[in-house]
Amino acid sequence: MGLVVQKYGGSSVADAEGIKRVARRIVDTKKAGHQVVVVVSAMGDTTDELIDLAQEVSPIPAGREFDMLLTAGERISMALLAMAIKNLGHEALSFTGSQAGVITDSAHNRARIIDVTPGRISAALDAGAIAIVAGFQGVSQDSKDITTLGRGGSDTTAVALAAALGAEVCEIYTDVDGVFTADPRVVKKARKIERIAYEDMLELAAHGSKVLLHRCVEYARRYNIPIHVRSSFSGHTGTWVQNQPEGGEMEQAIISGVAHDTSEAKVTVVGVPDKPGEAARIFRAIADVELNIDMVVQNVSAAATGLTDITFTLPKAEGRKAIDALEKVRGGIGFDSLRYDDQIAKISLVGAGMRANPGVTATFFEALSNAGVNIELISTSEIRISVVTRIEDVQEAVRAVHTAFGLDSETDEAVVYGGTGR
Amino acid sequence: MGLVVQKYGGSSVADAEGIKRVARRIVDTKKAGHQVVVVVSAMGDTTDELIDLAQEVSPIPAGREFDMLLTAGERISMALLAMAIKNLGHEALSFTGSQAGVITDSAHNRARIIDVTPGRISAALDAGAIAIVAGFQGVSQDSKDITTLGRGGSDTTAVALAAALGAEVCEIYTDVDGVFTADPRVVKKARKIERIAYEDMLELAAHGSKVLLHRCVEYARRYNIPIHVRSSFSGHTGTWVQNQPEGGEMEQAIISGVAHDTSEAKVTVVGVPDKPGEAARIFRAIADVELNIDMVVQNVSAAATGLTDITFTLPKAEGRKAIDALEKVRGGIGFDSLRYDDQIAKISLVGAGMRANPGVTATFFEALSNAGVNIELISTSEIRISVVTRIEDVQEAVRAVHTAFGLDSETDEAVVYGGTGR
């Protein structure tokens, strides 16, 4: 009967009905004897609408003012949610990120939380109230300016508050019943994962699973906060993300799930002189313009020419920037040409259990081969294998791999309740 | 070339185009060598939309949460305005009421400003920036909760900041060219008033002129801040509201203008025993439910019955509450009946010059009589005469009085630029 932090995404509070539904769920938790802290995102499309407005007045909005603008979104949803709870006869108080003590650095639009001092939240809880906190926002330590945490910020707010307040669980409410063995929109027979270790969840998040973001899981792992991902539309138990007990009660699954990602593009630097330092110069040029690259592959050099190809993937949105940066160093490095391909998909198989199962890679590749899917790139970690394929093969590939590893459920159990937003 | 505080209402920043137009005007003021502090209201109908949302989730929203909700409106407009200014190449920083040091009492939805500590505004100005401040909002001294100032709050924010910062003028931008001798929507030949004394403006504001609210003018008078009311749509000089120099350069106008108000209702308590203390008991009952009444008239008692009638006016929205309160004390006081009439209008003639002109009242009543308008109630102050008439006579009455006092302009000069909102 301890403290529970609950986070509701934008699709859960998209309209007045949604807010009232969420209010009832919160009150139920309170009635069950818990202290409740709620982190809420902006309603439905509010944030997108604010971004559109900003674009209309200024093509490149300033970070400080952009954050001031966007934080209006949670201010609306949290105040409405507090009102709805009070209307059910329970005390509720809403707090901005700043009031909740979410202290960040000064990097507007992508601030990092550096401290949480939730004195006002604790006081509200001690007084018997439910505390509603604006997700996604904080206040900078140096300049006391309003900041936002960037993508997935509300989940991070929730986990950070759970850590600071010593919550027994951080519940992340979304529009699906939990984390699935594959995207239920692609694989009808995807199964809900009951429990998953932080590290597997990190790999899934990093490679295309959109239910939880990497950053939030990383934060939870650091502070050992169990996350319970569940739907605000159903009453079902969702997925628990937590430390895997070492040789403990749980039989460790070989494979946790199959993630896919169609948001990346592939850049190939063709005809790079195969001598020490050339690859470093290429990736320095990329790093200098602050691009994050994902997979990197260097082909074996053709002995006859002394030239090699270097291929990497990165978010499509950053493709233009990468090409420009590389064109600038082309003369210095002396490569032949650049190839850009955004018609790719990445399919990743994740599972801590694959460490001890050497047959996993073979089964994975056989499944793809049997489905007639060609592999263009391969990259592996200790608990993950990723391949790049043509984008049109992605659904076929994910389904084939899902079946090959015995992940299919008996029934089509996956349900997506709300819209696609969070 | 001193400090100028400018306030822009919701109709001036109703959309992206409006925000860009206002941004250009602000930059022009800055280029003319002024330091500029801008107070901005929520965009267009934003506040009404937020109120509707609140009603959907809770029939009687809590004050604290309601304020948290409403303040999102200015947050959006001020951030967009700062972006638009920066896009024109000038530094601008937006500040919430709390950040701007607007300290209030804890009366949510109708907080009073009790202190202004604009340290961050001064710092922004010293750094050469334009400061954009959210109107209508502050932070409570005791609980550090977000508060709103109620109706006309943004104008009050502007005047309060002007006073705290020692501004040379507070410019209030609206959708008309200034204060007119009558509502230009009713009287086509209404003239713009060039200069008006605080006390005349207070009477106009109290009796139906909507350009400036009483509270803001009162604040300006107390701190002797000149207000310049003007249009954000035209470049015209507007109306200066300031101290009237005693026997100074200005010839004092006999009449400043004609105000009208159709928002009130009339309550008559019929058959009140005409003995000491009865009126007091009636108005104590009204005061106990926190109603503000306006005009009060007691008829001469009819000698035969020893009974009298007491009539008062109050905002229509509070009519139900007044009737309920009076019905409760009916037995104790022993009056006959209550009459409620919301089909009335109040027409007020305002001018400091009428003090020394005994013919004003006669001219006023003659004008109404000639127009066939019946007078139901009369109330006067030293610089104002108000009458209550049938609501259907109001336009005719205002025009007749306007003409009778020689206020008509040669041309139809009044222009209303934007919507009707502020």
UniProtKB/TrEMBL annotation, chains A, B:
InterPro entries referenced in this protein's UniProt entry, alphabetically: AceGlu_kinase-like_sf (IPR036393), ACT-like_dom_sf (IPR045865), ACT_Aspartokinase (IPR054352), ACT_dom (IPR002912), AKii-LysC-BS (IPR041740), Asp/Glu/Uridylate_kinase (IPR001048), Asp_kin_monofn (IPR005260), Asp_kinase (IPR001341)
A GO term, aspect molecular function: ATP binding
Sequence positions that bind ATP: K7, Y8, G9, G10, T174, D175, R185, K210, V211
Gene3D superfamilies: Acetylglutamate kinase-like (3.40.1160.10), VC0802-like (3.30.2130.10)
Every ACT domain range: 267-343, 349-422
UniProt pathway annotation: Amino-acid biosynthesis; L-threonine biosynthesis; L-threonine from L-aspartate: step 1/5; Amino-acid biosynthesis; L-methionine biosynthesis via de novo pathway; L-homoserine from L-aspartate: step 1/3; Amino-acid biosynthesis; L-lysine biosynthesis via DAP pathway; (S)-tetrahydrodipicolinate from L-aspartate: step 1/4
GO biological process, one term: lysine biosynthetic process via diaminopimelate
Cited CDD domains: AAK_AKii-LysC-BS (cd04261), ACT_AK-LysC-DapG-like_2 (cd04923), ACT_AKii-LysC-BS-like_1 (cd04913)
Top-rank taxon: Bacteria
Keyword field: Amino-acid biosynthesis, ATP-binding, Diaminopimelate biosynthesis, Kinase, Lysine biosynthesis, Nucleotide-binding, Transferase
CC terms in the record's Gene Ontology section: cytosol
Entry's EC annotation: 2.7.2.4
Binding site for substrate: T47, E74
KW Cell membrane (keyword) present: no
Catalytic activity: L-aspartate + ATP = 4-phospho-L-aspartate + ADP
PROSITE patterns named among the record's database cross-references: ACT (PS51671), ASPARTOKINASE (PS00324)
UniProt function note: Catalyzes the phosphorylation of the beta-carboxyl group of aspartic acid with ATP to yield 4-phospho-L-aspartate, which is involved in the branched biosynthetic pathway leading to the biosynthesis of amino acids lysine, threonine, isoleucine and methionine.
Family according to the record: Belongs to the aspartokinase family.
PANTHER family: ASPARTATE KINASE (PTHR21499), ASPARTOKINASE (PTHR21499:SF3)
Protein name: Aspartokinase
